[in-house]
Amino acid sequence: MKIAVLAGDGIGSEIIREAVRVLQALDLPGLELIPADVGGMAYKKHGHPLPAETLQIARAADGILFGAVGDPDCDNLERHLRPEQAILGLRKELGLFANLRPAKVFKGLEDASALRPEVAGAIDLLIVRELNGDVYFGEKGIRTLPDGRRQGWDMMSYAEDEVRRIAHVAFKAAMGRKKKLCSVDKANVLETFQLWRDVVSEVAADYPEVELTHMYVDNAAMQLVRNPGQFDVIVTGNMFGDILSDQASMCVGSIGMLASASLSEGKLGLYEPIHGSAPDIAGKGLANPMATVLSAAMLLRHSLGLEEQAARIEAAVARALADGIRGADLGGTLGTVAIGDAIVERL
Ligand code: IPM
Ligand code: MG
Prior knowledge:
This protein is an alpha/beta fold. Helix content is 40%, strand content 19%. It has helices at 12-25, 40-46, 52-60, 84-93, 117-120, 160-175, 191-203, 217-226, 238-252, 290-302, 307-322, 336-346; strands at 2-8, 32-35, 63-68, 98-104, 124-130, 140-144, 150-154, 180-185, 211-216, 233-236, 259-263, 269-273. A hairpin with a 5-residue loop joins strand 6 and strand 7. 3-isopropylmalic acid is lined by residues 84, 87-88, 242, 274.
């Protein structure tokens, strides 16, 4: 069981250290952790945010545990050298097209949400975000128009097979949950998302038990704060999924709580917290490692088939929260290592 460990920038190394401690506490026979450089720190060391060696280690692994990338020092580099390109490159190169972002309110955290406790308490949803297409990976550039004005442009598109394969992931996920799927698009304005809606509706024929609805993304953003309890599984494109998952994280209390899995057609997956590198608090031991710890649990479940151990980690996190263990993001005072200690103790 080879796990590539890519800590990256900012708070990445601090949160990854705690997730690794949790994995080691499980004493899994044959577990091998292989660290590799990624993001701005990799650029500074090797001249590229996703060095060939890192990609090779990631490709050869059974699962990838990822911290965060992003470094203000690198914001003025050419786009292909910026830290963010590392995660986009991994997603594309490894065919990680299906991003699962579960959002659920842990008991005791209802008050941490930006929403009223009774609204927040009902949240138990899964965002299935397409990760290999959309405006993220289209041609793009900044050009000069004949009249001399500069114009930025990014091409948005989805081919039907790209929509079909993510729709299947979402319908299957819904089958394992409450059998409700909401497809989020912007079919009223964008051709890309008219095709999206048509293809999702076609795939629905294979899943007669799943109740499919369609919702425009602006309405979905509104419904997520009005009545998030109505959602079970949400499926959407790369950009809308990026935005809605950050929004969902605040609905459950903190962006420091949301884990994610990015899956390929095979067993290989990349697991990361949905938050970024938080350069403002990096190195201070303040970051909440729970999203990363929960991502490690998803790795055990989806890439290694270790459901029981995954559930143990999740139970330890839930227990810690129930016992009042809180980082600053949740209004508490505990730092990164103390939260890691609390989880390991409860394992
Ligand atoms: C995310 C992040 C990334 C994205 C960035 C870091 C490229 O915001 O995983 O949600 O936009 O997908
Ligand atoms: Mg994002």
